[in-house]
Every structure is written in structure tokens, then in C-alpha cells.
């Protein structure tokens, strides 16, 4: 009788062990074998903020990317991913293993849209570039750029684009599903961070500072000459001279002008025409980069009131109008080089 019980016991144990082995093999298949081995199909899955591992597993299973939502949730709890899910859009395939998919999510390897915004771009140029990268539409941006974003300076009378000057030029990696407003807010947030870093928290007239920086940006892309150009305009403001900036006139014209400006261009009726109106224009004329912002904040200590930029990029400076005329004559004799 005892021998029969013992045999039955070991038979049950063997059966249970076999079932456990089959179960473990099933789990291994679920974890290590892709849903569709060799598949190159791609799906974009949005992991929303606040979603749990169970929610994400259900979505992945529904999209046909993984074999088991339960396995995804279990593995997420086991390896800690459940506590560190990074929201965003992921580029996933049923040809990947569950482990590989979770590694992407642990690394936060979300799909992004790379957009380069050069220094000196205007708001309209930035909008056009975002649209070219399939972020928003002309109609969507038309409404968004009509008024400043929260925290931006209130536009002065005559300002054409309230956001002008406050969208920092940089290379951005926008989330795949970024909205037009979010893209603008990211650039505004980046501007604030950069400004805080170089201003040291000093109380400044932000509008005047950025407006001057934008003029410097358009007058010279050269970081070395920027502090001297900024000083020229600062000196003019101190003595009450017009800025006479061609860059502000080009902004006022609001269309490309190849070559030099004509006398007719210099008489365009606009508050941005610094040949006609003393002081700074009502607002920035572009979105300046870090070197121009720094130059406008810390201009060089020089007595110059005039400058002439040659075609080769060299700049001739003068303190008196007579010296400026002599520089012009020299440039004409040497073909503007």
C-alpha cells in the first residue's frame, strides 16, 4: 500500500513538473520570440502620460505587436519598467521581441521630428519650416502667432508679429505628435532658459534688449563683430542719432530685396523704418541667437557711431561722419572688398 502511494505521489510530481516546464517554455516564447518573426511592419504607438504598464500592454496586443498583454505587464513589474514608463510615440514592430520593445521604452527611445531653426529666422520663416516638417497648418499658426504666448512681453503699438524675437533658434527634436502650439511653447521655453543663463537674473527691459539683439543679428552674423556693432547702435541711442539700420527697413518691406536698398526703400512708411523714426523699432525684427543676445547685453567699449560692412565680411568703423565718408570712398575704390 505504501509503495502504491509513493508511486502515485511521484507520478503527480512528475506531471506537475512537466506542466511547469511547459508553462515556463510558454513564458520564454512570449518573452523572447517576436509576435511575427521576420516582420518588417512598423506601427506607431502613443504611450500617453499616466498610462500604466497594463494599459500599454493592452494597446500593444490590440495593435498586433506583442503576443500577450499580461506578459508585458508582468515583465514590466519584474524589471521595474512599470515605474519608469516614458510617454511619447514609439516606432515598434511585431518582428521585435517583448524584451527588445521594453528596452526601447526604458530608454525613452521615442520618435522625434528634427527641425533646424537658424539664427535670424523670422516668425514667418519658423512657421513655414514647421509646416514643411508636417507640424501644423497655415490656418493653425495664423491664430497662434496673432498674440503672445503666456509670459511673453506685451507687444508695443505697431508690432507686426508678437512672437518675434522670443522663439529661440536651435536644432529641436520635437515629439512625433507635437502640436503647433507645443512647438512654439518649446521654443519660447528654450528662449527663457538661455536668457536666464546669460543675464544672471538681472532686471532688464526684455523687449528693448531683444530688439537690439535682433538688429545686431541681421546686421552681422559674425560673433566677433557683434559686440562692436551693438556698441555702435547703443552709442547712437545715447546721443539721439537715428539707428539708420538697413536691416529694420528690410523687415519693414516684408519681402526679399536682392542687393542694396534703394532710396525709395529707405522711405517706406513703417514704424520699423529706423531711417525715419528715432530710437528702437517697436519690436524685434528676427529671432536672435545667443551671440547677438550676449552682444546686446555686453556691447564693446568703443566710440564708434558708424560702420560699413564690405562684401567680404570685413567691417570698417568710424567715430565721425567724415571718417565714415572716407571709408565709403575707400570701399568704392576697392570694389567694396
UniProtKB/TrEMBL annotation:
What GO cellular component entries does it have? plasma membrane
Q: What class of enzyme is it?
A: lyase
Q: Which reaction is the catalytic activity of this chain?
A: a peptidoglycan chain = a peptidoglycan chain with N-acetyl-1,6-anhydromuramyl-[peptide] at the reducing end + a peptidoglycan chain with N-acetylglucosamine at the non-reducing end
GO:BP terms for this protein? cell wall organization; peptidoglycan biosynthetic process
Sorted keywords for this record are: Cell membrane, Cell wall biogenesis/degradation, Lyase, Membrane, Transmembrane, Transmembrane helix
Role of this protein: Functions as a peptidoglycan terminase that cleaves nascent peptidoglycan strands endolytically to terminate their elongation.
Q: Which family does it belong to?
A: Belongs to the transglycosylase MltG family.
- Write the protein's name: Endolytic murein transglycosylase
Provide the species name.
Answer: Sulfobacillus acidophilus (strain ATCC 700253 / DSM 10332 / NAL)
